[in-house]
Amino acid sequence: MKIVVCIKQVPESNNVKFDPVTHNLVRSGTTGRINPFDKNAIEAALQLRDAIGGSVSVLTMGPPAATEALRDGLAMGADDGYLLSSRAFGGADTLATGYTVAAAINKIGGVDLTLFGRQAVDADTGQVGPITAELLGVPQATFVNKITPDATGGLTVQRDLDDRTQTVALTTPAVITVRSEINHPRYETPVNIQDSFTKTITTWTEQDLNLDPDRIGLAGSPTVVTKVYAPTPTQRATRPLTGTPDEAVDQLIAQLQRQNLI
Amino acid sequence: MELNWTPQQNMLLRMVGEFTNQEVAPYDMQIHADGHYPEGLLDKMIGTGFLGLMLPRQYGGADFDPEITAEVVRRMAQGNASAAVTLEGHYKTVEQIIKFGAQSLQDKYLPTATSHIFAFGMTESSGGSNPMGIQTTARKVGNHWVISGNKIMITNGGLATVYCVLAKTAPDELSVFVVDSSMPGFSFGKQEDFIGLRGVPVGEIVLDEVTVPADHLLSQQGDGMLVGDSAHDDARILMGAALTGIMEHALDVATDYANERKAIDVPIGHLQSIERKLADIAIGKETTKLLYQRAAALKVAGQSYSEEAAMAKAYGSRTAVSACDDALQVLAGYGYSREYPLAHLILDARAMEIAEGTVEKMRSAIAQSELNK
Amino acid sequence: MGGSRTRHWPHTARHLSTHHQARQIANGRPVVAILLEGDDDSFEQQLADYGPDEIIRVRDAKLKRASDRTMADVITALARAERPDSVLFAATPQGRSVAPRVQTQLTTGLTADCLDLRYDDNLLVAVKPSYGDNVMCEITCPQARPQMVSVRPNTFAAERVTNSQTVIRDGDVPVSASVGDTIIDEHVAVSTATGVNGARKVLSLGRGAASDQTVALARQIAAKLGASVGVSRPLTDRDDFSVEQQIGQSGNTIAPELLINVGISGATQYLVGIDQSKLIISVNRDDNAPIMAQSDYVYVGDADAFLKSLAKRLGIN
């Protein structure tokens, strides 16, 4: 089975701060890391490859520094990597990203399964997987927590949709996005880390992918971020529960009874 | 600030940090309380390839150098010192086989070093600090050596499957041999019940007429002290690293507490008496780090590093004990509680004032080295 | 675009809070609900109680267990026929799976997982958290139409209206069978301790209540209260919790009637995640912890001692 895992490089930490004067976002730490949810997708791909054979490629769109995220995937055991990198891709929203990624999947050719993590921990959209599936014209299974290859070359997957679970018979080619409960991603091993620097990473630009300039980067992005700010939760009129723990619990229980919560 | 590592080394260190945080650190208290590793931890360490870290590529290893090996041990010790010392015992043993083993011996054992733990047996009940006092003997019979004797207090003893052992090949001659636990005449003896580093199995092996081929002799007959000293030197760098990791752990606990705990209105971290302790811990761990990193750098450069390695261990072990004690004092009553790790960090560090040569022996070696310059 | 024919399109009857939100921001614009249902379903009345101006119903046996692709195709066809100005989805797993496929077919913008919405003139401003709820972004779709968003469940409470005058009509669009993505089994998720999302009561644990004994005791108390157990970030490192129980991480905004926080100091993302809770009780050693100002009742003291007293009071040994 030929598998491509689409990954994203995200900031090291989500503990962002705002500059008190400029109100601009200050990102703590400069180095990036692979989106943790994407490691579940890579692990799922490696397990499939180990079970039924085939290959696992990792693919990302981003600046040249995003090579680091690809190396992480290679150090987990993926076979090769693809970097979609160009200034023209800058400012892409999910639609423009999906368009670029789908074109790369088509150019790689013969891809049976395209895997995504549930969402990126920075933008938190989870949209690029379904967008890519639509553009590739293939079926999808999202929020998947189990993948079982079947005898006919298809996949039986279980989806967890919070209020219900579904078992879906998926034919390939297909797109799957996985939940984080699907597996525990393996660590990069020292040997794989050394090897990851000798594996092939192919870089493609908009020319290589023959892309419509109106559908990539900023030009191809219908949405615009107009404002970024720190959230301010509502303050409440706080009343204390007082005394010993037993006394405080008595006051709490009385409140809960008054409000029919107990 | 970190040293200028290569991208490969940076990736490795990041992985080790994640591994330590997720797989090792959560079990630190439990390891001390239970006196053994939790189920599956060693399998995870082996599965993630830690044993083959510095092993050459042709044997399935990753061929990382001694500087980075020490950093891995330090990071592991930030999570749990026992796990770091189990790696230390393995690395120092494998290294002597790489340095001194015949090609045929290396081909036989090194491929197993990625999945099996190795250990070095020197100490005997009668031996003490005088190696010539040991009772284990090896006598040549045809093309083989026949080894008999008991080795005690072996780091990873009982856990390891391959052992280097120091034996007398003549009344005033020492040599080192490789034996493995599957050989006829090999058995395990008493396991120690130590007060610190409680995850590390420390035990005895009993050799009763264990017969090994001639190529199981490391280096030349009579080179026992050479091989043994080399193992000590390599181990002492890694112990300096482990001690640094312990101090970093203690400093973390102490600063967290000092930031949170308040005396009247200010966090206690602003009290001069607390500041002084935190500063001393920080200086101690940085100094130890400089010592072991310098020894490792000399080793990578192919220069003598024996004295610097001894300094890293001698200075680091006493400093770590006192640093962990300072950290305990910062937490006061909580520090003395089993709920916090400081008591066992003191005991973990304390082991390294004894193992791989006592502090007293270290000082004597350093002094002699200075006298003879 | 825009004007009096502006329409809002909440889809799927299961997430009524989305409909309510559409009504709130509509300000005179017609609100049209899209209902996809199986041939023997009838969710119309249930939906009408929440007051859309119109319901467009597509009823088909193939929609009983429809794949994402089938649903996306139906909604896309309706959108092409009706030309709505804005389309709202519930940001449930299902909504977040279908909406991007619709967006792609319509070549327009979609903002995921919004916490708030408003119109600036006819431009829909979507307020969306990022960086695990540490940051809020306002996102618009200035050119392309429809303006699409998915709205996080529970950010607005669903409210019934009386005397709704909802018009119900059938949407005339083809429904294709699922090919290559057949749902061969579906069942309602067993409500174990996993979900905090729709829970009526939540007992939430943080760094100050992280020991094995505390967690075990809290589970007993939660069971007695009929509450789900939630956690803040540090406890997701434990084997028995994951991001699925984490409150205040994307997707896990809660709106229970009762929330008890034990040993939680209150990182920004957590405070955003619990903002819609009705009654908030917090127990913490530090009375300056950010959680305290956002609570209705606070107890300053030891989490373990409090839980032990609570357990005793509830008759747990």
Automatic annotation (TrEMBL), chain A:
<dbReference type="InterPro" id="IPR014729">
    <property type="entry name" value="Rossmann-like_a/b/a_fold"/>
</dbReference>
<dbReference type="InterPro" id="IPR014730">
    <property type="entry name" value="ETF_a/b_N"/>
</dbReference>
<dbReference type="GO" id="GO:0009055">
    <property type="term" value="F:electron transfer activity"/>
</dbReference>
<feature type="domain" description="Electron transfer flavoprotein alpha/beta-subunit N-terminal">
    <location>
        <begin position="22"/>
        <end position="213"/>
    </location>
</feature>
<protein>
    <recommendedName>
        <fullName>Electron transfer flavoprotein small subunit</fullName>
    </recommendedName>
</protein>
<dbReference type="Pfam" id="PF01012">
    <property type="entry name" value="ETF"/>
</dbReference>
<dbReference type="InterPro" id="IPR033948">
    <property type="entry name" value="ETF_beta_N"/>
</dbReference>
<dbReference type="InterPro" id="IPR012255">
    <property type="entry name" value="ETF_b"/>
</dbReference>
Automatic annotation (TrEMBL), chain B:
<keyword id="KW-0274">FAD</keyword>
<dbReference type="Pfam" id="PF00441">
    <property type="entry name" value="Acyl-CoA_dh_1"/>
</dbReference>
<dbReference type="InterPro" id="IPR046373">
    <property type="entry name" value="Acyl-CoA_Oxase/DH_mid-dom_sf"/>
</dbReference>
<dbReference type="GO" id="GO:0003995">
    <property type="term" value="F:acyl-CoA dehydrogenase activity"/>
</dbReference>
<dbReference type="InterPro" id="IPR036250">
    <property type="entry name" value="AcylCo_DH-like_C"/>
</dbReference>
<keyword id="KW-0560">Oxidoreductase</keyword>
<dbReference type="InterPro" id="IPR037069">
    <property type="entry name" value="AcylCoA_DH/ox_N_sf"/>
</dbReference>
<dbReference type="InterPro" id="IPR013786">
    <property type="entry name" value="AcylCoA_DH/ox_N"/>
</dbReference>
<feature type="domain" description="Acyl-CoA dehydrogenase/oxidase C-terminal">
    <location>
        <begin position="222"/>
        <end position="369"/>
    </location>
</feature>
<feature type="domain" description="Acyl-CoA oxidase/dehydrogenase middle">
    <location>
        <begin position="119"/>
        <end position="210"/>
    </location>
</feature>
<dbReference type="Pfam" id="PF02771">
    <property type="entry name" value="Acyl-CoA_dh_N"/>
</dbReference>
<feature type="domain" description="Acyl-CoA dehydrogenase/oxidase N-terminal">
    <location>
        <begin position="6"/>
        <end position="115"/>
    </location>
</feature>
<dbReference type="InterPro" id="IPR006091">
    <property type="entry name" value="Acyl-CoA_Oxase/DH_mid-dom"/>
</dbReference>
<keyword id="KW-0285">Flavoprotein</keyword>
<protein>
    <submittedName>
        <fullName>Acyl-CoA dehydrogenase</fullName>
    </submittedName>
</protein>
<dbReference type="InterPro" id="IPR009075">
    <property type="entry name" value="AcylCo_DH/oxidase_C"/>
</dbReference>
<dbReference type="GO" id="GO:0050660">
    <property type="term" value="F:flavin adenine dinucleotide binding"/>
</dbReference>
<dbReference type="InterPro" id="IPR009100">
    <property type="entry name" value="AcylCoA_DH/oxidase_NM_dom_sf"/>
</dbReference>
<dbReference type="Pfam" id="PF02770">
    <property type="entry name" value="Acyl-CoA_dh_M"/>
</dbReference>
<comment type="similarity">
    <text>Belongs to the acyl-CoA dehydrogenase family.</text>
</comment>
